[in-house]
Design goal:
- By secondary structure, this protein is α/β, with parallel strands linked by helices.
- It is about 35% helix and about 25% strand.
- The chain is flat.
- About 25% of the residues are buried.
- The protein binds guanosine-5'-triphosphate and zinc ion (ZN).
- InterPro entries: G_CP_dom (IPR030378), P-loop_NTPase (IPR027417), Ribosome_biogen_GTPase_RsgA (IPR004881), RsgA_GTPase_dom (IPR010914).
Length: about 325
């Protein structure tokens, strides 16, 4: 027993950052900028209550390195400052964490006919949910002859933005500036807007320094370059498949759509608890009559409202069930 305690004391507690998470197996980016395979102690699984309690890409973790082995055991996930998650609204409500501790959400959009302010607004809502600060990156500035109409719309949003072009590599330096001081950024945007091009421009130098990392899998030894958590100066870039797919779930109800117009109108309704159906003095219905908003917009607002109520109900039910089983477990322990 004493010997065990002694050993524990000598185990060095280290801090690193989850670079890859797959099936509860991890790679930690260490202070020495190496990637260390890591796993969880067996009892960890009994302590977690939600999937979201498991380490995720971007998490800072306390770990110890196994003696004489290039392997680590994760002890603890440090509190998250922000998180991107997806609430899967199937039969059971589950929160799936995509990435954590992100300071900046770089919303990438190209300056051509694909430019779409509504899409940007949805990403802004997502940023708000996550706790990250949104920055809009306008790519392919070289292809854009008339920038005025785009910039006019962006100015109204009141969000920082910057223009970049792959033909002017120095234009991406602004992004590096955001990451000074150990900050973390991640990129979202539709396919083809130029995210990879941008990340390559940003990381070219660093990647050559880090080189490739060898990894074992069932098919034998092969070489892959891990680029999910990239150190850039003293900051980081997170580029995971999950964040890449973010565009596919723009319609998820946790992101929803911003209905700021309807919310603003409802403040002018005569009754504070107005449901905007048939009440007297409903400012929303009046706006429809005046053609300021469409019926369709109001009905999608109602739809989102209903979905959120359903989700909340299901969540409450699950919570109740969970409490019941943990209480059972607790009382079983004292029997
Ligand atoms: N003219 C011009 N083309 C660009 C610029 N940046 C990227 N492209 C081109 O746009 C295309 C798509 O760029 P990617 O970087 O692959 O886009 P992506 O956002 O990573 O796309 P996904 O991987 O599908 O998500 C490529 O052919 C790039 O060469 C730019 O600044 N100017
Ligand atoms: Zn109303």
């Amino acid at each position: 027993m004493e010997e065990k305690n002694l050993k524990k004391k000598h185990e060095k507690q280290l801090i690193g950052r989850i670079a890859i998470a797959y099936n509860h197996m991890y790679k930690i980016l260490t202070k020495e900028q190496t990637f260390l395979p890591a796993s969880l102690p067996g009892n960890y699984h009994f302590q977690v209550q939600h999937e979201a309690d498991y380490p995720a890409v971007g998490d800072w973790v306390v770990f110890h390195q196994l003696p004489n082995e290039d392997k680590a055991m994760i002890k603890e996930v440090l509190p998250r400052t922000s998180k991107f998650s997806r609430k899967t609204a199937g039969v059971a409500v589950k929160e799936q964490i995509i990435a954590t501790n992100i300071d900046y959400l770089f919303i990438v959009t190209s300056m051509n006919e694909d430019f779409n302010i509504a899409r940007i607004e949805r990403y802004l809502v997502a940023a708000q949910h996550s706790g990250a600060l949104p920055i809009i990156i306008l790519t392919k500035a070289d292809l854009c002859e008339d920038k005025g109409w785009i910039l006019d719309q962006l100015l109204l949003l009141g969000v920082d933005f910057t223009m970049v072009s792959m033909f002017q590599p120095e234009s991406v330096e602004v992004i590096k500036d955001y990451l000074i001081g150990g900050k973390t950024g991640t990129f979202v945007g539709s396919s083809g807007v130029g995210k990879s091009t941008l990340i390559n421009l940003l990381t070219n130098e660093e990647r050559m320094k880090v080189g490739n990392i060898r990894e074992d899998d069932q098919k034998g030894r092969h070489t892959t370059t891990h680029r999910e958590l990239i150190q850039l100066g003293d900051g980081y870039i997170i580029d995971t498949p999950g964040m890449r797919e973010f565009q596919l779930w723009e319609d998820d109800i946790n992101i929803g759509e911003s209905f700021t117009d309807i919310q603003a109108l409802s403040e002018q309704c005569k009754f504070r608890n107005c449901s905007h159906h048939k009440e007297v003095g409903c400012a929303v219905q009046q706006a429809i009559d005046e053609g300021k908003i469409t019926e369709k917009r109001l009905s999608s607002y109602f739809k989102l409202e209903r979905e959120l109520i359903m989700l909340e109900k299901r969540r409450a039910k699950q919570e109740k069930k969970r409490m019941k089983t943990t209480n059972k477990k607790k009382s079983a322990r004292y029997e």
